[in-house]
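Need residues for this backbone.
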């Protein structure tokens, strides 16, 4: 039986996500991001296509590296304004039954104690369909907004993340025993206090002495996503993640990252198959190849290469406006998203990128590849990447919303189903059960070590 392709939809509670400028396209509805109608309609569309999860990006701070300030980002809506992604999830859960929600939350700016409650609350309200995309942040403007002089160094942020994970694992897994909740009306006892425990965590960065505020949610620990592909980020993914989101401009870049993460997971005692790896891709599809090419040509009339460089400058910490536009860029250590710069420099020695080429590439789809073609062409591309890039599926960004997602759901997915490489029904259970077949994290995962 051929390997089944997994698909997430990739969106953000903002106007300009991965394709700067395309919010101006006459068919684009991203500017209605601040209405419930946008999110409810999107959720229903994705569930109709049996999409595994809506993966919600998020960022604190403003992209103000490019040209030394925030003007380009503000004028072109480069991931600003951006609303809280968690607020829209309960509403979407009411109009869906199976769609998962992977939400990005930076652990750099919130203590584990209230954060653990927020995730447990979402897991209850979605009946076990919540996932957490663990990120450490990368914008200096976010640190300044939180009253800090600047963010911690790149690898230090992952050391903080390790401590954060241990604290949240204890709250989710060790505070309430499985049978602590009685709901005994006749006996007038809601819970057995002897089976509810105060957890103590005394780490280098966080201290917690508390009982978790929530009773056990369907998954306890949310499905753990991770989206850092730097060397340190890969090790963090190998240690903690169930789903890993990586991206790069070519199959070689993506395969090298995916292979390395799986190898690292095995060295930690985990099964390589315990990780599902998704790569970023933007799809422009139509019934015929010619129609898809015409759609792509139309989209190019609305892109903003200036805004694309503002996005890339924020990701990498490099002001591309200060570089010669037609000279290949070189890798230098930056305190931002290290993997973003590596993917365009050292990751593929056979390919060099100039700022002008990066601007053109990132204007549709950000750092990932753009697949253009008929529904059958896109199915071919998916299968080729599955075979040659060592991935389990794709995080699908949009060029124009909701058009991109509707083309995938109504055109590409039926073609994949005809080929037997995509499910025809959702599996039962929580998001973790749908993705892994297990209700809880396995014994090899570090969260299992703190369970009672």
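Answer:
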């Amino acid at each position: 039986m051929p390997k089944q392709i997994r698909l997430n939809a990739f969106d953000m509670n903002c106007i300009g996500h991965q394709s700067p400028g395309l919010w101006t396209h006459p068919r684009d509805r991203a500017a209605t991001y601040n209405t419930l109608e946008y999110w409810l309609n999107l959720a229903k569309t994705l569930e109709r296509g049996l999409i595994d999860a809506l993966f919600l990006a998020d960022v604190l701070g403003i992209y103000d590296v490019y040209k030394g300030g925030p003007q380009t980002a503000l004028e072109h809506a480069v991931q600003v304004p951006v609303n809280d992604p968690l607020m829209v999830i309960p509403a979407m859960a009411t109009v869906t039954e199976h769609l998962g929600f992977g939400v990005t939350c930076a652990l750099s700016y919130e203590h584990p104690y209230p954060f653990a409650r927020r995730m447990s609350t979402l897991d209850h309200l979605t009946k076990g369909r919540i996932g957490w995309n663990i990120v450490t942040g990368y914008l200096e403007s976010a640190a300044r907004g939180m009253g800090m002089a600047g963010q911690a160094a790149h690898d230090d942020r992952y050391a903080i993340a390790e401590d954060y994970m241990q604290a949240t694992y204890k709250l989710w897994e060790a505070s309430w025993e499985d049978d602590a909740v009685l709901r005994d009306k006749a006996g007038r006892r809601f819970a057995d206090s002897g089976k509810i425990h105060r957890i103590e965590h005394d780490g280098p960065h966080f201290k917690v002495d508390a009982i978790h505020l929530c009773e056990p949610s369907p998954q306890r620990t949310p499905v753990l996503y991770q989206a850092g592909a730097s060397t340190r980020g890969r090790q963090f993914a190998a240690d903690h993640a169930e789903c890993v989101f990586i991206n790069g401009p070519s199959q070689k870049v993506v395969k090298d990252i995916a292979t390395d993460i799986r190898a690292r997971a095995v060295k930690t005692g985990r099964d390589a198959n315990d990780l599902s790896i998704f790569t970023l891709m933007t799809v422009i599809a139509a019934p015929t190849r010619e129609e898809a090419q015409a759609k792509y040509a139309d989209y190019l009339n609305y892109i903003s290469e200036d805004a694309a460089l503002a996005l890339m400058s924020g990701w990498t910490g490099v002001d591309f406006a200060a570089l010669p536009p037609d000279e290949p860029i070189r890798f230098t250590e930056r305190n931002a998203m290290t993997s973003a710069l590596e993917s365009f420099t050292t990751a593929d020695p056979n390919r060099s990128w100039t700022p002008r080429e990066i601007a053109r590439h990132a204007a549709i789809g950000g750092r990932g590849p753009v697949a253009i073609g008929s529904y059958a062409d896109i199915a071919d591309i998916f299968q080729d990447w599955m075979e040659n890039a060592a991935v389990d599926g794709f995080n699908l960004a949009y060029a124009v919303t909701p058009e991109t997602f509707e083309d995938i759901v109504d055109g590409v997915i039926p073609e994949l189903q005809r080929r037997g490489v995509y499910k025809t029904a959702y599996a039962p259970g929580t998001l973790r059960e749908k993705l892994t077949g297990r209700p809880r994290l396995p014994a090899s995962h570090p969260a299992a070590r703190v369970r009672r």
